[in-house]
Each structure stands twice: as structure tokens, then as C-alpha cells.
Amino acid sequence: MTEHFVKLSCGNCGGELEVYDDLDRFACGRCGAEMEVQRRGGTVVLRIVTAAAGNVQTGADPAGAESALKRLKEEAENLSQQREAMLKQSAERKKLGFVIGAALLVLGFLVVRFGGGFVVGLSLMMAGILTLKFIRGADKRASTDMRELQAKIDVVNGRIEDHPYRSLAPTLPSRDGTN
Asked: Rounded to whole angstroms, what are the CA distances from 20 to 9, 24, 41, 45, 47?
């Protein structure tokens, strides 16, 4: 082997890895996950090729595997809490935005109807319409962010399910309510 290497962490167990220049594919000595080395520009990226569950060396480092599982569980819990906070925040923003938008529309209509000024009334109605449109756009962006977060949660739950010490970790419910 050459003496040029890069230190990276295993994407499966978090163990320290030394990636040498002449390696294209290898297995983590700690958890057994097979990695593919991808080099682009001046960067080196590891991609997990196979799950470690079938290749684990059970006596290799159980403490390391258990700590990796613990980190995965914590990450899944944090992501789930972020998603719940985003859902709550989105619902509150949507509710407030629709109330304000509808109030502006009604107020604008009343101003025009009862002679308070045509331009002022139309301005209030336009402000109500723009508020409703803004809230719909913000809701679409929030939905996209929540889908991305749910995809991350699903990936972490999959890694927990494939982990050799998974009997210690109950998975978080997926979007459809199943485990």
C-alpha cells in the first residue's frame, strides 16, 4: 500500500477508517459494512455498498457497535422531534395566516360596501389575497422540507433495522404509522 491516506469515519458504525490511494472498495474492520471509495475533484467520499448485518464480525467490537446504534437512535429521535416541531409551526402559521387573510378580505369588502373608500377597500382586499397566497406558498415549502426530513428519518430507521444490535433499538414509526 502507499503511504498516502485519508482518515474518514464509517457511515455505518462511525469507526475511524484510513482510506489509501489505491483502494476502490473495502470493508470496515469494525462493523463489516462494505464501502466504495468515490473520488471527485479533490474529495474522497465513502458510499456503503452492502449492509453490515450479514458481514458483521460479532466479536469485533460490540461496544463500538452498541455506541453506533445508540447514536443512530439519538439521531432518529432528534430528526423526529424536528419534524414534529415543523408540523406544529406550520399548522400555527397556516391558521394565523388564513385568519389574517380572511379578516383583511372581509374588512376590505365592508369598507367598499359601506362607502369607506373604494381604493382603501380594494387595497385591503388585495392585502388579504396576497396574505393567503403567501401562506399557501409557505405551506408548500414547509411540506417539501418535511418530506426531506421524513426521508432522512426513513434512512436512519433503515440503518437501525439493519444494525446487528437492532434488538436493543425500537424503531420510530414511519409516516404511515407502521414500524
From this structure: 14, 9, 16, 12, 15
